[in-house]
Amino acid sequence: MYEFAYHRPGSVSEAAALAGDHADGKLLAGGQTLLPTMKQRLAGPSDLIDLSRIDDLRGIEVKDGVVTIKALTRHVTVATSAEVKAAIPALAELAGMIGDPAVRNKGTIGGSVANNDPAADYPSACLALGATITTNKRAIKADDFFKGLFETALEEGEIITSISFPAPEKANYQKFRNPASRYALVGVFVAKTGGHVRVAVTGAGSKGVFRAKEFEAALEANFAPAALDGKSVPASGLNSDIHADAEYRAHLITVMAKRAVAAVA
Amino acid sequence: MTAVSMMVNGQHVSAEIDPRTLLVQFLREHLRLTGTHVGCDTSQCGCCVVHVNGDAIKSCTTLALTCDGAEVTTIEGLAKGDVLHPMQAAFRENHGLQCGFCTPGMIMTAVELVNRKGTNLDEHTIREELEGNLCRCTGYHNIVKAIGAGAQAMASAAE
Ligand SMILES: Cc1cc2nc3c(=O)[nH]c(=O)nc-3n(C[C@H](O)[C@H](O)[C@H](O)COP(=O)(O)OP(=O)(O)OC[C@H]3O[C@@H](n4cnc5c(N)ncnc54)[C@H](O)[C@@H]3O)c2cc1C
Ligand code: FES
Ligand code: FES
């Protein structure tokens, strides 16, 4: 690791001030992505602003059919939350599929969403459920938030404070894991609310998480696995790597989407 | 250098450390508690698992400074004097180790698993929960057996 100065603010405003003072600094949440990256010297922030003591950033609230999860809430907490399980069971299940128990004991929803790893799980839930990402400055719709590989609408030093998920009528997440890394080789989140269906795909897109609009239209006409027969996402926009080529990923997207629909149809 | 203090295995410790110090380095190099191992140093293998405020975490992927004021338990903190913790005893009885390198992490993971999910664990649950712990020797079979037995023994010990 390169050297850095360490700060432990007690409030969001203090953290924001520190971030403003240190343009080359970085926020530290669970550290499950940032610390490995720093150890490999792929990141070398001048300052680390450790959010772990900001208790205001922890907690889950369900109100008027919207589940609001504060940024520092850990994956284990979401996975085991009775409120989340009741309102959006697919979201709790997704959180329980992230990494392994030790990673879930540290990693946070805010860190995962801010990081926007193309193989991360939460971005698919944000996009499919039409979540709103709230920061210390503004509220951003998921559709406007995820901008590409590790790219988001966040400005320098902007802090995610919470993420709000409107509870859908039906939702399911299917993940085809890379058995070694446990990240998604392909993950498909399907959500249905009234006549509207949203399908978000993670792990596969060369620009990160995306919506499969053709699948959405087909499922709005007929919410059944058979509606996706013969449909596929073009392989041209998908990743090829040592784990899976683009054609295989395209195939997996249809299979995972059908399984998600079958689980709740 | 920055000051840090925490409770490790029930003892208060404090030191001045470089902010880059990982919890595992602090435990092994400053406190000489070398039971916690570093297998991969890339958050994959789970040899470095310890408990921080009761949660099993990878100490190679945690800054010591983040643990300021925390209660930390390592493999050295499980036995009571000469009496092994029931989970440690179960690993011995069930031949749950060969070289032993992964064992501290396996045992710390297993004890937290029991604390979280109870003492009646089926094989499937144990295997799923071991996702973050790699063993290069045993083929896992006896580890899974040991954890099931250790969980039962923890139940009897609690009675
Ligand atoms: C072995 C292993 C397996 C994993 N498997 C999976 C998996 O299957 N699926 C998956 O989705 N993820 C996986 N992860 C990643 C894990 O979910 C991380 O916890 C997550 O990506 C980052 O969250 P964090 O709290 O650890 O963030 P950190 O690592 O602390 O931070 C990540 C980035 O987000 C920024 N940040 C953090 N919090 C905020 C905030 N509130 N506002 C603005 N910016 C912020 C940081 O500055 C940093 O750039 C895995 C990690 C490991 C080590
Ligand atoms: S040494 Fe920490 S996970 Fe391998
Ligand atoms: S016993 Fe040798 S690595 Fe597990």
Q: Going across the major beta sheet of chain A, what is the strand order?
A: 4-5-10-6-7
CATH H-level superfamily title of the largest domain in chain B: Beta-grasp domain
Q: Kindly report the spatial arrangement of strands forming the biggest sheet of chain B.
A: 2-1-5-3-4
Q: State the major sheet of chain A.
A: 5 strands, antiparallel
Give a quick account of the main beta sheet of chain B: strands, pairing sense, barrel closure.
5 strands, mixed
Unreliable spans of chain B are none
CATH architecture of the largest domain in chain A: 2-Layer Sandwich
Poorly predicted ranges of chain A (pLDDT <50, ≥5 residues)?
Answer: none
Bound molecules: flavin-adenine dinucleotide, FE2/S2 (inorganic) cluster
Number of strands of chain A: 14
Order of helices and strands of chain B: EEHEEEHHHH
Query: Strand fraction band of chain B?
Result: 15-25%
Written account of the structure:
Chain A has 265 residues and is of the alpha+beta class. Chain A folds into three domains: 5-50, 2-Layer Sandwich (Uridine Diphospho-n-acetylenolpyruvylglucosamine Reductase, domain 2); 55-166, Uridine Diphospho-n-acetylenolpyruvylglucosamine Reductase, domain 3; 170-264, Enolase-like, domain 1, CATH 3.30.390.50. Chain A contains eleven helices and 14 strands. Chain A has a five-stranded antiparallel beta sheet with strand order 4-5-10-6-7. Chain B has 159 residues and is an alpha+beta fold. Chain B folds into two domains: 2-77, Ubiquitin-like (UB roll) (Roll); 86-158, DNA polymerase, domain 1 (Orthogonal Bundle), CATH 1.10.150.120. Chain B has helices spanning 23-30, 86-93, 103-117, 123-129, 141-158, and strands at 2-8, 11-17, 49-52, 55-58, 71-73. Chain B has a five-stranded mixed beta sheet with strand order 2-1-5-3-4, sandwiched between helices. In chain B, β3 (49-52) and β4 (55-58) form a beta hairpin. In chain B, α3 (103-117) packs across α5 (141-158). Chain B starts with a strand and ends with a helix. The A-B interface holds A 1, 3-6, 8, 28, 31-32, 35-36, 39, 48, 50, 52, 76, 99-103, 105-106, 182 and B 2, 18-20, 22, 41-43, 46, 49, 55-58, 61-63, 65-66, 68, 109, 112-113, 129, 131-133. The structure holds flavin-adenine dinucleotide and FE2/S2 (inorganic) cluster (2 copies). The site of flavin-adenine dinucleotide has 30 residues of chain A, from β2, α2 and α7. One FE2/S2 (inorganic) cluster is lined by residues 97-102, 135-138 of chain B.
